[in-house]
Write a structure and sequence with these properties.
With 245 residues, the chain is an alpha/beta fold.
C-alpha cells in the first residue's frame, strides 16, 4: 500500500527555485522531491523518476506548459497531476482540467493546501490497480530495463540487443531479420528458433519481475512489437536537481 512517506513528487517550474518558495517543509511529506524546469524536462526524466505526482507550474500564455501537460497525461494517465497558476488565470485553470489535471492551485502556493491535495491524491493512488503509465526505459550503460514503476531489472546481452532493436524500429515493430541482424548474426543462416527462445525468456523475465504481462507481442510472419512506450537512456543528460527528503 502506498503511503505519503513513499511518494515521489516531480516539481516542474517555469523558473527554477521559485514555485515552492512558500512551502519550505514540503520535503517532509514525500520520500523523493525532484525538480526540473519546463524547458529542460524530458520524457526520460519522468520515466526514470516514475513519479506518483507531478506538480506543473503554468506561466504566461502557458502554451508550452499545456502541451507538456497533455503529453505527460497521455504517457502517464495514472499519475496524480497538479497545476499551479496565477489567481487571475481562470482560463488556464479550465484548460488545465481539460488536459487531465486533478487539481489546479493558485500561486503563491499555500503549503497546508498543497499537502492536503497530495494526501488526497495519495489516497486515490492506493486504490489504483492499473500502473500509472506504460513507459519503459533501456539503460544502455548499465544494460538494464527500467519499469514504469521506477524499478530496474538486469538484462542479458542478447535481451538488451533485442530491446534496443525494438526501440529503434519504426513504431517499435521489428522484423525477425532486423532482430537477428541486431544480435550480430547472419539472418540467412540463423536458426529463428534461437530468436524465439531469447524473446520468450525475456517476456517471462519481465512478467515475473514486473508482476504484469510483458509488453512484447509476436506478429505472425512479421516479427515483434513493443506495445508500451520504450525510451533509451544514454547517461548524457544533466540530472534534474533534487530536494532534500
Amino acid at each position: 500500500m502506498l503511503e505519503s512517506s513513499q511518494l515521489r513528487l516531480l516539481v516542474v517550474e517555469s523558473v527554477a527555485g521559485r514555485l515552492l518558495s512558500s512551502c519550505p517543509r514540503l520535503h517532509e511529506h514525500v520520500s523523493c522531491l525532484q525538480f526540473s524546469t519546463v524547458e529542460k524536462l524530458s520524457e526520460i526524466d519522468v520515466a526514470l523518476l516514475a513519479p506518483h505526482i507531478v506538480l506543473l507550474e503554468l506561466d504566461g500564455q502557458a502554451g508550452v506548459e499545456l502541451d507538456l501537460a497533455a503529453r505527460m497525461h497521455r504517457l502517464w494517465p495514472g499519475v496524480g497531476f497538479i497545476l499551479a497558476c496565477e489567481p487571475e488565470q481562470m482560463n488556464l485553470r479550465l484548460q488545465g482540467y481539460a488536459h487531465g489535471a486533478d487539481y489546479c492551485l493558485v500561486k503563491p502556493l499555500v503549503e497546508v493546501e498543497l499537502v492536503s491535495v497530495i494526501d488526497a491524491l495519495a489516497r486515490r493512488l492506493r486504490m489504483q490497480v492499473a500502473p500509472a503509465g506504460d513507459c519503459w526505459v533501456i539503460d544502455s550503460q548499465r544494460q538494464m530495463l527500467g519499469l514504469p514503476d521506477g524499478r530496474f531489472m538486469e538484462l542479458s546481452r542478447n535481451e538488451y540487443l533485442v530491446l534496443q532493436c525494438l526501440q529503434r524500429a519504426p513504431d517499435q515493430t521489428a522484423s525477425r531479420q532486423s532482430l537477428a541482424e541486431g544480435l550480430g548474426v547472419n539472418y540467412m543462416t540463423y536458426d529463428e528458433r534461437r530468436l524465439e527462445a531469447i524473446v520468450s525468456r525475456l517476456r517471462r523475465k519481465i512478467a515475473t519481475f514486473a508482476g504484469r504481462e510483458a509488453p512484447i507481442r509476436a506478429l505472425r510472419n512479421k516479427g515483434y512489437l513493443f506495445t508500451g512506450s520504450l525510451l533509451a537512456y544514454q547517461h548524457e543528460r544533466t540530472e534534474p536537481r533534487r530536494g532534500s527528503a
